[in-house]
UniProtKB/TrEMBL annotation:
Pfam families: PPR, PPR_2. Keywords: Repeat. The lineage of its organism: Eukaryota, Viridiplantae, Streptophyta, Embryophyta, Tracheophyta. This is PPR CONTAINING PLANT-LIKE PROTEIN. PANTHER family: OS12G0527900 PROTEIN, PENTACOTRIPEPTIDE-REPEAT REGION OF PRORP DOMAIN-CONTAINING PROTEIN. PPR repeats lie at residues 104-138. GO terms for cellular component: mitochondrion. The keyword Repeat applies.
Length: 406
């Protein structure tokens, strides 16, 4: 019995935590200890490292806990989970505090942004609370991050609590971005009337900011309110010096979203008459609208007209129409449009055909197009996308091209 107890006690002293525990001086690095343990061929389980980190945190040995966490994340043998990321960020925050780095709102904001980027939204309000407990006044950005975190988790009561707190702070001046953020939160929650209230507040603060008007236009479109959407567009034209291609892309996209394609095409003509640089991203919005509505013929006629007037081609535009014909099972026209896209590629070298579209076309041409035309098409692809052809277009045992992943 004594022998058994002695063996058990020895085993406990020989585990990894027992090896690390004596190094109480936070200036001592634990990475060499972990490396030596691994070099000795001793196995390390995920749960052991998590237990060590937890123990070090409890003893306020934050630097060493962070070091163990970093060692774990840098080793491919371990599964570094979202909760491990949460612990890591918490340790970074505590380490920053120890070193006196969290003395301004900016440092806390950086930490909250880290939580948002890693999907740990529930940690954001804790940082805001910690900030206030340490005598640091949250700024507008601090509150906005917290609003978004509550909004993403559909915690409307907490959104409104934060709003009341913001309104009570004399140093906080609400801007259009904050009001647009709140309107979007209400919109996603299905609270349309409340969304409208904050859109009106947003409008009051927009002044001559084109980006602000773009947000208003997009949010009214999401509400399905075309009248307010177009009123915001008219305000943008009246209050901003000029409308950029970006602005037209927004309003055209919203008209397409609401199904007003003819009105979008008319607005596109207004843009064409005044634009200094013809950016195909603008008409592509309308081409997508017609193609997705099952009218690729209309989109093709429109593109042919653009090509005739502008004396320039764009592969992405032809690819959009090819997709429209493909959706209607008109593979012959899809094939023709994709050939046109590849032929136009010299004028847009950054464009690449979508693998799924090429796969579908190749599966069709094998049985419907003569061998010479198939060869010409594959040759065109190979000339422009040799690596793509080599990797994706290897015939299977049956002699056909395999289906490509979407």
């Amino acid at each position: 019995m004594r022998r058994s107890y002695f063996k058990k006690a020895t085993t406990q002293r020989n585990n990894l935590y027992s090896r690390i525990s004596p190094f109480g001086d936070p200036r001592i690095s634990l990475a060499p200890v972990l490396d030596q343990w691994a070099e000795e061929g001793k196995k390390i389980k995920d749960y052991e490292l998590r237990t060590i980190v937890k123990g070090l945190r409890a003893r306020k040995r934050f630097k060493q806990a962070l070091e163990v966490s970093q060692w774990m994340s840098s080793n491919e043998l371990f599964n570094f989970s979202p909760s491990d990321h949460a612990v890591r960020l918490d340790l970074i925050g505590k380490k920053m505090k120890e070193l006196g780095f969290v003395s301004t709102a900016l440092n806390y904001n950086d930490l909250m942004c880290l939580y948002v980027k890693t999907g740990l939204l529930e940690k954001v309000p804790d940082v805001l609370s910690d900030m206030k407990e340490n005598g640091i006044s949250p700024d507008l950005f601090s509150y906005r991050i917290c609003l978004k975190s509550y909004g993403e988790r559909s915690e409307i009561d907490n959104v409104e609590k934060i709003l009341r707190e913001m309104e009570s702070q004399s140093h906080i001046s609400m801007d259009w971005i904050t009001f647009a953020t709140v309107a979007n939160i209400y919109l996603k929650a299905g609270l349309k009337e409340k969304a409208l209230v904050y859109l009106k507040k947003c409008e009051e603060k927009v002044n001559k900011n084109a980006l602000g008007y773009n947000h208003l236009i997009s949010l009214y479109a999401s509400l399905g309110n075309k009248d307010e959407m177009m009123r915001s567009w008219e305000l943008a034209k009246a209050n901003c010096k000029k409308q950029l291609n970006r602005d037209y892309i927004i309003i055209l996209g919203c008209l397409v979203k609401l199904g007003h394609l003819e009105e979008a095409e008319k607005l596109l003509q207004d843009w064409e008459s005044s634009c200094q640089y013809y950016d195909f991203q603008v008409p592509n919005v309308v081409l997508i609208g017609y193609s997705r509505k099952g009218l690729p013929e209309k989109a093709e006629a429109m593109l042919q007209d653009i090509i005739e007037k502008q004396k320039m081609k764009n592969p992405s535009s032809w690819s959009i129409i090819a997709a429209g014909y493909m959706d209607k099972q008109n593979m012959e026209k899809a094939f023709e449009c994709m050939k046109a896209a590849l032929a136009a590629e010299t004028e847009n070298k950054g464009w690449r055909p979508k693998p799924a579209m090429i796969s579908n076309i190749l599966n069709w041409v094998g049985d419907n197009v003569d061998a010479q035309e198939v060869e010409a098409f594959v040759g065109l692809l190979e000339t422009k996308h040799k690596s793509y052809v080599n990797q994706q277009m290897v015939p299977n045992k049956a002699g056909s091209v395999p289906e490509l992943p979407l």
